[in-house]
From TrEMBL:
<protein>
    <submittedName>
        <fullName>RimK family alpha-L-glutamate ligase</fullName>
    </submittedName>
</protein>
<keyword id="KW-0464">Manganese</keyword>
<keyword id="KW-0067">ATP-binding</keyword>
<dbReference type="InterPro" id="IPR013815">
    <property type="entry name" value="ATP_grasp_subdomain_1"/>
</dbReference>
<keyword id="KW-0436">Ligase</keyword>
<dbReference type="InterPro" id="IPR003135">
    <property type="entry name" value="ATP-grasp_carboxylate-amine"/>
</dbReference>
<dbReference type="GO" id="GO:0009432">
    <property type="term" value="P:SOS response"/>
</dbReference>
<dbReference type="GO" id="GO:0005524">
    <property type="term" value="F:ATP binding"/>
</dbReference>
<dbReference type="InterPro" id="IPR011761">
    <property type="entry name" value="ATP-grasp"/>
</dbReference>
<keyword id="KW-0547">Nucleotide-binding</keyword>
<feature type="domain" description="ATP-grasp">
    <location>
        <begin position="286"/>
        <end position="475"/>
    </location>
</feature>
<keyword id="KW-0658">Purine biosynthesis</keyword>
<dbReference type="Pfam" id="PF14401">
    <property type="entry name" value="RLAN"/>
</dbReference>
<dbReference type="GO" id="GO:0046872">
    <property type="term" value="F:metal ion binding"/>
</dbReference>
<dbReference type="Pfam" id="PF02222">
    <property type="entry name" value="ATP-grasp"/>
</dbReference>
<dbReference type="GO" id="GO:0006164">
    <property type="term" value="P:purine nucleotide biosynthetic process"/>
</dbReference>
<dbReference type="GO" id="GO:0018169">
    <property type="term" value="F:ribosomal S6-glutamic acid ligase activity"/>
</dbReference>
Length: 485
């Protein structure tokens, strides 16, 4: 990618680093030569991002042109909104207290230049600001009452950089343009750069450590430059061409923010934000699958006003589900009406709608992995010993049933047909489609984004080819995007 620094006046940056070119906002907005250029990085250093100002339009049109602006229009809007300090406070309060505790004054301003600040003791805090609000030049204002709190957050103009910090700002910018960022280890420049989001501390991740290594090796064999990202690396997304999420996803979670930001910046992303939004809500799945004609167990959307309908329409036992349940959590087998009232009362405190389905006991659940509209792998997940789910959780801990992986051509045609129809109803991403087969009937249980792919389980049939197929899919999508541009 080529870098372009956009300023209001060329005199604002008279000696630019060799890695970038400097042009005015007027030229960028009006000269057709700057409308193309593929996935060019655009560093917007205009004086103001005010609505409908030149700076605003630089970020807006950079996104429309397929460029990668810093800041993008979403960050511009976030910086103008009232929620910026609240979001930062919620994500980084402990870091703020630790970083600012030694200060004797009760107020402090921190200027952040491309993710860095001049005071080394606040380096992590500066990085956190940039991670959440990726903009070239930021100023955060803090005040201490009983605790330190952020009271203001804004972008600043080049002429607002203190004279004593100008040289540091230029050095930070030069390093950023050259790709010299903290924790960045690049052996060679790859054709495409892939970020894999994971959480080393997650107890039940979608891929075990060996599988993550195999994904990385497969990507590198195809020519990707690969880096493993964690939650704190949010501000680095613009460095990459693609994002592969291997951390359990949820809407009210940083994984969704990563996916949404990646999609907005036109990165190839698995799991995409629409898939996360749809798959993590069983109410959406129930309604959409019914409309699409995908067979499911008898289903009812439950609310406070129709509890009495469960006995007649579904019967007992039945299965009650929180909309965002996952890994067998938030899914309760209900044996009678009294238990329904008790459990539903508790769950309805968290969500105004629940899903209740007929209980269909089977020896195992089918899991069909689907990628880009094609079947990828097939597993049978057996129920945990003496339990009705594949995972049993109790005071003694967690027990899982066995798993068996089969070739795709060994899967019954009806199972495969229902799985493919269900996946297509959600999107074109990577899904794990769970189904039950009883007699000649096949019923969808749910479609999962971010499905489990563990070394030694889902890869039993394809081996290393499984990881290569996923990475090849991302490479093909990147090549297609490049051709479009």
């Amino acid at each position: 990618m080529t870098g372009l620094v956009v300023v209001d006046r060329l005199a604002d940056w008279p000696d630019p680093p060799a890695e970038v070119s400097v042009i005015t906002a007027a030229d960028y907005l009006t000269d057709d030569r700057h409308a193309g250029g593929g996935r060019r990085r655009v560093y917007n250093l205009c004086d103001s991002y005010r609505y409908q100002s030149a700076g605003y339009y630089v970020s807006l049109l950079a996104g429309a042109r397929g460029h990668q602006p810093l800041p993008d229009i979403t960050t511009v809007q976030d910086l103008k909104g009232r929620d910026g300090p609240r979001v930062f406070r919620a994500e980084t309060d402990d870091l703020v207290q630790t970083s600012l505790a030694p200060l004797e004054s009760d107020s402090y301003e921190l200027d952040v230049y491309f993710g860095r600040c001049q005071a080394k003791r606040h380096a992590r805090l500066a990085r956190a600001l940039f991670n959440l609000f990726p903009a070239p030049l930021l100023r955060a204002r803090f005040k201490r009452q009983q605790r330190w709190e952020i009271i203001g957050l804004s972008a600043i103009a080049l002429d607002e950089v203190a004279p004593g910090q100008r040289a540091f700002m230029q050095a930070a910018a030069s390093d950023y343009f050259a790709g010299k960022r903290p924790t960045r280890k690049r052996v060679k420049r790859a054709h495409y750069d892939l970020a894999i989001l994971h959480n080393p501390a997650e107890k039940e991740p979608p891929s075990n450590p060996k599988a993550l290594k195999l994904f990385r090796h497969a990507a590198e064999d195809l020519g990707f430059g690969v880096e493993m990202l964690e939650r704190s690396d949010f501000g680095r997304l613009l460095e990459f061409d693609a994002l592969f999420i291997r951390e359990t996803t949820a809407v009210n979670h940083h994984s969704y923010r990563f996916a949404r930001r990646a999609a907005q910046d036109d990165l190839v992303v698995i799991d995409d934000p629409d898939s996360i939004l749809r798959c993590t809500n069983k109410v959406w799945l129930a309604q959409r699958m019914t409309r699409a004609g995908v067979p499911t167990p008898q289903t009812l959307i439950l609310h406070r006003g129709n509890l009495k309908d469960v006995a007649e329409q579904i019967g007992f036992p039945c299965v009650l589900k929180q909309p965002d349940s996952a890994f067998s959590r938030g899914v309760v087998k209900i044996d009678d009406e009294a238990e329904l009232r008790r459990v539903a009362r508790e769950l309805l405190e968290r969500s105004d709608l629940l899903v209740v389905q007929a209980f269909v006991p089977t020896e195992y659940d089918w899991r069909i992995g689907v990628l880009g509209g094609q079947p990828l792998y097939a597993c049978r997940y057996f129920m945990a010993p003496s339990h009705w789910q594949i995972i049993k959780r109790d005071e003694a801990g967690k027990q899982e049933g066995d798993a068996e992986t089969l070739p795709i051509d060994a899967v019954p045609t009806r199972v495969l047909d229902v799985a493919m129809k269900a996946a297509a109803t959600v999107g074109k991403g990577l899904y794990g489609v769970d189904l039950k087969q009883f007699g000649k009937r096949v019923a969808l249980i749910e479609v999962n984004d971010n499905p489990s792919i563990d070394a030694g389980v889902e890869d039993q049939v394809l081996g290393n080819d499984l990881y290569r197929i996923v990475m090849q899919h991302m490479l093909d999508r990147l090549d297609e995007r490049t051709r479009r541009q």
